[in-house]
Amino acid sequence: MTEQEPSLADPDGSAPLRRRHFVDLSPLRESPAFARLWIGGAISGIGGQMTIVAVGLHIYDLTQSTLAVALVALFALGPMIVFGLYGGVLADSFDRRTVALVTAIIAWASTAGIAALSWLNVDVVWPLYVLSTVNAVASTVIGSTRQAITPRLLPTRLLPAASALTGISMGVMVTVGPALAGLLVASVGFSWTYTIDVVMFLAAFLGIFTLPRIVPEGERQKAGLESVLFGLRFLKTAPNIRMTFLLDIIAMTFGQPRALFPAVGALLIGGGAVSVGILTAAAAVGTLVSSIFSGRLGHVRQQGRAISQAIIVYGACILGFGIVLGVVALNTAGPAGQSFDQVDMVALVAASLLLAGSGAADNVSAIFRMTILQSSVPDGMRGRLQGIFTVVVAGGPRLGDLYVGVLAVAGALWFPPLVGGLVIMVAVGVIVRMQRTFTRYDALDPTP
């Protein structure tokens, strides 16, 4: 579009150019309820990311096994799929505020349980798997319910901006959270790291508790298997939504190297927990920066084409990350040091920049995927489709953790991201060519 043309973000074409390049803060100004939900989710999310990284480091510390770290994802995957789908049903059957509040209590209690295990010096792995699974399930239901709530708090024209703000909060979460986790684990240990998350999670209750009642519009179905099946049948008639799910599953399954980070920090690049925190935060930096400069994204009409292009860029960045690890492996005689003064700084910077690029590309894809879902799906179906969306978003990376863990055991640390990046680029290119209607999706005429 030209600078003079009307856009999705400013239909009358009157918004100054300087505002178009930066994130639109209108959702925070126009809806205090959305603002509180957004702020509470961001603060609690920082703590949640701290615990995710700390649990990975904790399990690696107990087992010295990358596969053991990846098993956190495997054990959580099945329950996340089941309860993610059923959580969407609950969001379409009951007051969405109540559903979010109850599941937030469960998530908070599971985090408190992990902290208690650490304080009691319970040095066995299976309780960490159990409580991490409970936390992941509750977080999945909260996520799908929160996203189903958003279109009821904001007008349609502000949904792209709301998605960009979600990208900012996610960027802050996974930038600050992992970095804090690395520093806290290295300085005060696992117990205090988990406990800080327990306190920070309280912010989520403020955002949810102050929401108005949000009862689904239209005909409501009884919560049960038939309601889940009805949502899946609706998905069969929604080719654009299906494509967003499929492309994201491919990207997250083959392009999620986070389970490698503890071993990379301990054996390859060096730096131990601090390097793990930096690598984990790098993708979030890309997410954060791309969200801050997301104003132009509100003008994009061919959102399907933008999604496919962003995911191809994502694959290229993951491929580059694998190449960096391969070069380090070829030039390293033995295990790297755990101390940060022994880190391979050139490799750490190069790997971090590529991960930041992957985070930016994934965020652009996420903004458009969320906008397509929220703007094209009827409110009475939104919870179930958001449940499926959340299962895809949360489950894909866990499949990726398993893929990385298995290939890392069978090969080398650089092998999974190198192969995965290639698979993403080729698969997305082929699938988009086979489903050309997706690239012609028009944001001014949203159809599922």
UniProtKB/TrEMBL annotation:
Membrane topology (UniProt): Multi-pass membrane protein
InterPro entries linked: MFS_dom, MFS_trans_sf, TM_effector
Major facilitator superfamily (MFS) profile domain ranges (all copies): 196-448
Keyword Hydrolase: no
Highest taxon in the source lineage: Bacteria
One Pfam family matching this protein: MFS_3
Transmembrane segments: 37-60, 66-86, 98-120, 126-146, 158-186, 192-212, 267-290, 311-333, 345-368, 388-408, 414-432
The keyword Ubl conjugation is annotated on this UniProt entry: no
Keywords of the record: Cell membrane, Membrane, Transmembrane, Transmembrane helix, Transport
Compartments where located: Cell inner membrane
Primary site of residence: membrane
Gene Ontology molecular functions: transmembrane transporter activity
GO cellular component: plasma membrane
Name of protein: Putative MFS family arabinose efflux permease
Species per Swiss-Prot/TrEMBL record: Compostimonas suwonensis
